């Protein structure tokens, strides 16, 4: 799983995607011990939201988040990758180097992403990973698009845009757009 994420993150290198500096693995028991050395980032978008007095970010900052992450998503989609788990804990922020000193937002955690084949514009919910094949309603329920809940539907890059819209709503309003139980009827048991 770690090797798959390393390969994905190298494949989707972009200023708004967390950088992988080094990967190391070694045999251990029946398996393998793997480690990634990633770019050091300050904190998650969730922490930024939680630290604000009313759990809301200024409109200008939410626009900044949207521009940075939509730029990252446009790039990864061009590379044939669908993230499938865009949420505030998978968006990190850090300061750019001088002279700008402004925040930059970066997408992290490609562990449940899907890879399209060149000839396909969408991804079947049955995914092949390095270790297994599984039917996947994968992601975090409150941020998942409706098609992510249905194993008979294909997931397209628009699913990430849906999730980014939920993130933006939460950052602006201080609450999720759906009540806690509203996504329960969509979940697959």
Structure report:
- The chain has 189 residues and is α+β, with helices and mostly antiparallel strands.
- The protein has 4 helices and 11 strands.
- It has a 3-stranded antiparallel β-sheet with strand order 3-5-6. A two-stranded antiparallel sheet has the order 1-2. A two-stranded antiparallel ribbon has the order 4-7.
- Helix 3 (59-78) packs antiparallel against helix 4.
- It is globular, with a radius of gyration of 17 Å.
- The two termini are 24 Å apart.
- The model is unreliable at 118-136 and 185-189 (pLDDT under 50).
What are its keywords?
alpha+beta; three-stranded antiparallel β-sheet; 4 helices; 189 residues; 11 strands; 28% helix
Q: Order of SSEs, N→C?
A: HEEEHHEEEEEEEEH
- Oligomer status: single chain
Termini separation comes to 24 Å
Q: Please count the helical segments.
A: 4
Average pLDDT figure? 79
Q: Which word captures the global form?
A: globular
Structural class: alpha+beta
Spans of at least 5 consecutive residues with low confidence: 118-136, 185-189
Total strand segments? 11
Strand order of the largest sheet: 3-5-6
Return Rg in Å: 17 Å
| Beta-strand content | 15-25%
- Give the % helix: 25-40%
How is the main sheet built? Answer: 3 strands, antiparallel
């Amino acid at each position: 799983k770690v090797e798959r994420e390393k390969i994905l993150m190298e494949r989707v290198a972009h200023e708004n995607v967390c950088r992988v500096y080094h990967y190391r693995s070694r045999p251990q028991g029946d398996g393998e011990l793997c480690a990634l050395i990633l770019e050091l980032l300050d904190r998650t978008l969730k922490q930024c939201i939680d630290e604000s007095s009313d759990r809301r970010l200024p409109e200008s900052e939410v626009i900044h988040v949207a521009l940075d992450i939509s730029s990252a998503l446009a790039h990864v989609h061009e590379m044939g990758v669908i993230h499938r788990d865009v949420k505030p804990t998978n968006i990190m922020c850090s300061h750019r180097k001088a002279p700008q000193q402004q925040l930059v937002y970066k997408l992290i955690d490609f562990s449940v992403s899907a890879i399209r084949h060149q000839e396909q514009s969408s991804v079947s919910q049955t995914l092949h990973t390095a270790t297994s094949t599984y039917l996947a309603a994968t992601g975090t329920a409150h941020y998942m698009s409706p098609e992510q809940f249905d194993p008979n539907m294909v997931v397209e890059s628009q699913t990430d845009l849906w999730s980014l819209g939920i993130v933006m709503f939460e950052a602006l309003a201080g609450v999720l757009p759906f009540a806690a139980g509203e996504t329960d009827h969509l979940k697959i048991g």
